């Protein structure tokens, strides 16, 4: 590729492309290139999720997650309308099946209200069935703002925007080396050298490794968790109108099985969360030696397992046993049977973990001279992507391009 660019963005997932777009919308003459190792955009996390447009119920008020989720959801809906991308507000029902969950449901309502979520309703007893007739629950929090969208379509539209604004999207080029020479960031890829004044890395499942290539030692490591779904048959899918979720337990890092009616009207249940031994392979049993050694050999993983061993074992058992998975589904939709579901799809979540075994909850962005790295952008990363892109562009103009 000829010519030095102002900014190189690594990663053509939804966040990388949203960032490139935001940079060029703010400064139309900026020369931007997006570099992606896969043959198409949105190949990994962006293309392997259930497409939920999160409203921002769970997140600590004032956190990046809370702020950017709310801002990003509004921006995403507006963008979808402008680009003719289908989305719909199906509503989320967070269901308490035991009285012991009531206080946690109250805390969710407090957070959701603080985050500015509109039209929340706390439902009691028979009111739950008014929203989801097949759902079982003693009490539920209903958030009608929650929606669904096709993030793959959004990502392809963002790539088109980047190109139409004068940027480049280079596919099939894996970044092998990152160096700074004479004030220029030099990316050595599969078959070429790309030079830029600045770098923004949105590497998802490879984000810690990309930082390492640049000589940055991140404070966290990406630990991949595979999440498997079951898809309901068409007749069983009629039992779920929107989204049915459990009340999260703050003692544990995993949300648990939940139901989502996607934008194409298929209904999936899941995901579970099991340590993956390959960062980017989606078969139920997949192993990549480097990924496995790094995960199993990481002190944070062992401390995490010691702290959350019981729930981790439950997740593994549910992964191995369809009946266990279905049993969890039946807590919330009792009429679901094993014959109503088929295995798949699956995804892998890039979760930043500290050496002490803690899961980083908020978005994590680190910067150095001429470089910025997104080290953690889990759910609601896709919902918040346009806002994350604007935030990264703002930081770039402040710290890198001033």
In words, what does this structure look like?
This protein has three domains: 5-46 and 152-220 and 361-400, FAD/NAD(P)-binding domain (3-Layer(bba) Sandwich); 92-144, no CATH class; 221-236 and 253-359, D-Amino Acid Oxidase, Chain A, domain 2. It starts with a strand and ends with a helix. A hairpin with a 4-residue loop joins β11 (184-188) and β12. By secondary structure, it is of the alpha+beta class. The model has no long low-confidence stretch (mean pLDDT 95). It contains twelve helices and 20 strands. The radius of gyration is 21 Å and the shape is globular.
Key features?
402 residues; alpha+beta; FAD/NAD(P)-binding domain; D-Amino Acid Oxidase, Chain A, domain 2; 9-stranded mixed sheet; 8-stranded mixed sheet; 12 helices; 20 strands; globular
Write the layout of secondary structure elements.
Layout: E1 5-10, H1 14-26, E2 32-35, E3 52-53, H2 64-83, E4 87-89, E5 92-96, H3 102-114, E6 121-124, H4 127-131, E7 139-143, E8 147-149, H5 151-164, E9 168-170, E10 177-181, E11 184-188, E12 193-201, H6 207-213, E13 221-232, H7 234-237, E14 243-246, E15 258-261, E16 267-270, E17 274-275, H8 289-296, H9 299-307, H10 309-320, H11 322-330, E18 341-353, E19 364-368, E20 371-376, H12 385-400
Parallel strand pairs: 1-2, 1-12, 2-9, 5-14, 12-20
Antiparallel strand pairs: 3-8, 4-8, 5-7, 6-7, 10-11, 11-12, 13-16, 13-17, 13-18, 14-15, 15-16, 19-20
Helix pairs in contact: 1-5, 1-12, 2-12, 10-11
